[in-house]
Amino acid sequence: MKRLTLSSLLAVAILSGCSSTEEVVPDVPPSELYATAQQALQSGSWTTAIERLETLDSRYPFGAYSEQVQLDLIYAYYKNDDLALGEATIDRFNRLNPAHEKADWVLYMRGLTSMAQDRSFMHDLFNIDRHDRDPEPARKAFRDFKRLLERYPNSRYAADAQARMVFLKNRLADYELAAADFYLRREAWVAAVNRSQLIQREYPNTKAARQSLLIMESAYEKLGLSEPLENTRKLIALNPI
User: By three-state DSSP, how is residue 82 classified?
Assistant: First the structure.
């Protein structure tokens, strides 16, 4: 079997995208259109579901299915990895329905959508773990889940949001650790210490916080600061990795 190269994988992706043609959604009653959208959602046919739902949304923006169509679109966009469209639909829904009974679910989906933006196709394809990539989507997701717990502590999504916050906290701490290590390798000793202290302050009880002590130890040793070095070594002994 021939080995697939990166260029061939990308070519397949491009060709498959170009070969698809936009389907014309038939002019049928909204109830029938919504029923076919639901069938597509249940079968995992996200593209078909999105086509039907977008058609409903554009043809009947104030119809009986309006709110549910937007909620379904939020979910379908997320599942289809149309994350920017999902985020825009969430913003629109919140603007039009600020006190909706499913507001906790919408906030949960915002967190999931932001969290999904914290990766890329290439990272997934080659199983690459890049702690040094831009963490802004992870920060957004963390804020969304935190807001969910604050506003809706009894929500059915609260437990999962809390678990995801633990993962995200470690992700953000790992990013700061990569930055501290970068400064250490560049012999920017003070910057390495400052970044390590930020990790310990903002993300305590993480593996990165314990690992940052080793960076501080090296930096203090290079700076010739005996007292901070001794204190750091004591902390390392009390917080083994």
Answer: coil
DSSP state at residue 236: H
Q: Is the pTM of this model over 0.90?
A: no
Separation of alpha carbons 203 and 170, rounded Å: 8
Q: What is the pLDDT along the chain (241 residues), one digit of tens a residue?
A: 444 444 444 444 444 444 333 556 667 788 999 999 999 999 999 999 999 999 999 998 888 899 999 999 999 999 999 999 999 999 999 999 999 999 999 999 999 999 999 875 445 445 555 555 679 999 999 999 999 999 999 999 999 999 999 999 999 999 999 999 999 999 999 999 999 999 999 999 999 999 999 999 999 999 999 999 999 999 999 998 8
Q: Which residues of 76-85 are buried (b: 16+ CB within 10 A; e: fewer)?
A: bbbebebbeb
Residue ranges of domains in the chain: 29-100
Task: Please name the amino acid found at residue 152.
Answer: Y
Between CA 173 and CA 184, with CA 179 as vertex, the angle to 5 degrees is 125
Selecting from 1.25.40.10, 1.10.10.10, 3.40.190.10, 3.40.309.10, what CATH number does the domain 29-100 have? Answer: 1.25.40.10
DSSP 177-241: HHHHHHHHHTT-HHHHHHHHHHHHHHSTTSHHHHHHHHHHHHHHHHHT-HHHHHHHHHHHHHS--
